[in-house]
Amino acid sequence: MLDPDTTRHADLRSGNPPWLAGVTRPVGAAPQADLRCEVAIIGGGITGCMMAEHLTAMGRDVVLVDRERAGFGSTLASTAMLQWEIDLPLRRLAALYGFEAAADVYRRSFSAVAGLTDLAGELGLSCNFLPRDTIYLSSGEIGRRELQEESELRHRAGLPGLLLDHPTLLANFGLDREAAIVSPGSAEADPLSLCHALLDVAARRGARILRDEAVSFDGTANAAAVILSGGQVIEAEHVVLATGYVMPDCVVSDLHQIASSWALATVPQGPQGLWPSRALIWEASEDYVYCRTTSEGRIVFGGEDEEHDDPARREAQADAKTAALQEKLRALLPAADSRVSHHWSGAFGKTADGLPLIGRVPGQPRMLAAYGYGGNGITFSFLASRLLGALIAGEERPWFRHFAIDRPHPL
Predict the structure, then answer these.
(1) How far lies 93's CA from each of 108, 144, 302, 367, 403, in Å?
(2) Where are the domains of the chain?
(3) Per the confidence metrics, is the pTM higher than 0.70?
């Protein structure tokens, strides 16, 4: 497990992702005295910035603290495939929690992408945000029969999508697989620009951005405190932990683990290298590969996940993993130019049931947290901002239990 006291950005990702820093990047200042606020957010990645934007829109007095540059940790390693389909298929999630609960989770994920799409448009965020379909491909593990069952359950849940057979899939997308589910309602973006654009909006509304390290937390039923490395104290009504894949000791869950993933971006493609509609593509398998395009016409291709969180080991595997991804890219998209312009790796948090950990920290009434996003990082970041915003406003809803940090292990 990553040590919250020693882990830095360089431990969370390596390589050179193709993402661009936002045009406007608020720079944090070191605090000179103790502070008071309504909400203190710890972490300046995509989740912390999403929280800051939402809470300032609610009129809250917000302080955001990050010990390094906002967005340059795990956010920079994201491939920003903003899908509503989660890592665990609906049929498997239903087997764990029942159909009604699983369908509710999927519908809320669908609504989260729709909400984020609306927000990007309303705020005019400059981050290459584009709505996309998804293509959920059959694999050696999961064929047409399983996709048929998944498609039927999605329709029963009121979710959109169409099951395509091999001839139709090949004719429409040039993909040589047995079957696929093609669904609308997802999106793509430049994750770093999105993060900085949200932080800029929050800062212009009055959020205070601090460059410092939170070294300890304290709380009572009525207030919470964050102690910074320089000795200054932030007194807050609520503290939100949004520290990516580095969980402080006060957050405990046997559902959560850290893994490693690798990705590459190709050189810009010629007219034959990209598939129609440039949909997000991912495989129906346990260790799936996935791909999308960028505004420059590059193909971003990722996967080859391994269940370890050792930064040195991850970096040592970079060349072999990049070569393996190139080979899988050629097999899936033989017309594409597979020459690599960027390659990178990163740590990511995942859970046994594919659902994030969002809610109150058990035993800490004024502390809230969001962790364990799996393959739906930014989608679940948006969902976290709305769920935690509601809790801060004093609202409790039954569906919050789907994502509770202390929910029991289902297996």
Answers:
(1) 14, 19, 24, 28, 13
(2) 9-77+192-253+354-403, 126-186+255-350
(3) yes
